[in-house]
Each structure stands twice: as structure tokens, then as C-alpha cells.
Design goal:
Helix content is about 45%, strand content about 20%. With about 270 residues, the protein is α+β, with helices and mostly antiparallel strands. The strands form two sheets. It has a six-stranded antiparallel β-sheet with strand order 1-2-9-4-7-10, covered by helices on one side. A hairpin with a 2-residue loop joins strand 5 and strand 6.
Length: about 270
């Protein structure tokens, strides 16, 4: 009897990603098919073999695979025990459609840094409430994919942009409780969203989502010491839920919100 596949799929609240798909297959083989999105694939266990435009390719765990939209391909495991993979289906607006031909010719990308960034993006997508982090990570991933396809990897990027970095910080200061999307911030500041992430990170040594989380935690500390209950604090400062709040609070402060509040009460 064939082993039952282990599959998880969802549509995240992140513009640019149509679907997230995680799967472990013991013996499944895909027939020839197409997608209307860019298929960004990493393999965590085993290896996948596939045909793309009549050429055979392999996807071991060390590489990133990018399959262009509307190009037929198939796929199946080639190692005992099957394979485990994580896939992002990226909206066609994420990558210039003129690069489809180059992706057909070179779908396998040997880039450990990109592989790690895609892994981090998947982790952020698994955590409700971390959408700004996912948006920032997606911007950098999409940029690096385009650089690969254009042959521009390693080309020097523009110098620091302190003005736009400080304008983004001011914008985050005004909206850190209710939050805002990276696209909205880029529209307000009349610049590209990827440039926002790079400029802010270079100027302040942290990503925009880290700054926003820090502002929320600072406000939470004051409310906790003022006597507000932790569940009420979580929603008051902009976190998705109590679990989301507790995870980030402990990461920043080093202890749970409840323990932090109790130390203030003893004092």
C-alpha cells in the first residue's frame, strides 16, 4: 500500500505569493503540467528529477529551483523514501516576464545565500502576524532571483539612502500599532519596496519588521507594568494574538510577558 502523502497548503496574507505548498511524498510522480505562477522550489529531503521544456534537470537539497509560468514540466523522486519539498507560487508580477526564457534555460540556481533566504521566508510565512517580515524577505528573494536570471549577481548596488531610511522610520513610528504593508510604505515614500528594505537595514542595522516589533514590545512593557493584563496588551500593541505577542516579547526581553508583569507587581 502506498504511503499517504503529508501535505500542507495555504494562501498567505502576503502580496506577491499566491500559495505556499509543503509536501512529503514517498512515491508520487507529477505528470506533465503547467502553473500560471512562478514556482520557487527547495527540497529538504531526497532529490527531485523533472523535465522542463524537454530537458532533464535535478533538484537536490542544496539548490534553489525556479520554474517559469506556463512552461510544461513534470517531477518525481529519485531517492529511496521519496522527497520533502517546500514551494512558493509567486505572482507573475514578482519577476519580469521577459525573464521566462532565461529561467527555462537555467532553472537550477546554485546559491547558498538565496537558499537560506528562501528558507527564512518560509519560516516567516508559517507565523501569523509576521507579514511585514515575510514581505521584506520576499522583496530580497525576488530581487536576487532576477539578478540571477539577468546575470547581474554581484553588481554593486546604490549607496546608502539615509533620507528614505529615516522617512520609513518616521512612518513606522506613526503606524507601528496598526501596522502597514511594505507596498503601502513604498507607495507613500515614492520608492521601490526592495530599496526601502535595503536602505533601512543599512542605515539602522536592522530590518523594518524588527524595528516595528521593538516599538510594539516597548509599548507592551509600559502597559504590563501599568497593570494591563497580557491578553489585552497583545491586541492593544498590534500583535496577532497572545502566542504571537509572547514569542516576540520573550525574544526581545528575555522572559515571558506574565513573568515580566509579576516582577513589576512585586516591586
Amino acid at each position: 500500500m502506498a504511503a499517504r502523502p503529508d501535505i500542507t497548503a495555504w494562501r498567505p496574507r502576503v502580496e506577491g505569493i499566491d500559495e505556499v505548498f509543503h509536501a512529503r511524498f514517498a512515491d508520487h510522480a507529477y505528470p506533465m503540467h503547467t502553473h500560471d505562477a512562478w514556482t520557487l522550489l527547495i527540497v529538504d529531503e531526497g532529490m527531485v528529477r523533472y523535465d522542463l521544456d524537454r530537458h532533464e534537470h535535478g533538484a537536490p537539497s542544496s539548490v534553489v529551483t525556479l520554474l517559469p509560468p506556463h512552461i510544461p514540466h513534470n517531477g518525481g523522486g529519485v531517492t529511496p523514501g521519496g522527497f520533502r519539498k517546500r514551494v512558493l507560487y509567486l505572482n507573475t508580477a514578482q519577476i519580469d516576464p521577459e525573464l521566462v526564457g532565461r529561467a527555462v534555460d537555467r532553472p537550477v540556481l546554485h546559491d547558498p545565500r538565496l537558499r537560506h533566504r528562501v528558507h527564512q521566508l518560509h519560516l516567516s510565512l508559517e507565523r501569523p502576524g509576521d507579514e511585514l517580515e515575510a514581505q521584506s524577505r520576499l522583496a530580497l528573494v525576488s530581487e536576487r532571483l532576477a539578478e540571477h536570471l539577468r546575470g547581474e549577481l554581484g553588481v554593486p548596488r546604490p549607496a546608502h539612502d539615509r533620507r528614505v531610511a529615516r522617512e520609513l522610520r518616521a512612518l513606522l513610528d506613526r503606524h507601528y500599532v496598526e501596522g502597514l504593508t511594505l507596498r503601502d510604505a513604498a507607495d507613500r515614500l515614492h520608492t521601490h519596496h526592495t530599496h526601502l528594505v535595503r536602505a533601512f537595514s543599512r542605515e539602522f542595522g536592522m530590518a523594518p519588521h524588527q524595528y516595528l516589533t521593538g516599538r510594539r514590545v516597548d509599548l507592551a512593557r509600559r502597559l504590563l507594568l501599568g497593570g494591563m493584563r497580557a491578553p489585552e496588551v497583545a491586541t492593544s500593541v498590534g500583535f496577532y494574538d497572545q502566542s504571537h505577542f509572547s514569542r516576540h516579547f520573550k525574544r526581545v526581553v528575555g522572559t515571558s510577558p506574565g513573568h515580566y508583569a509579576r516582577t513589576g507587581a512585586r516591586t
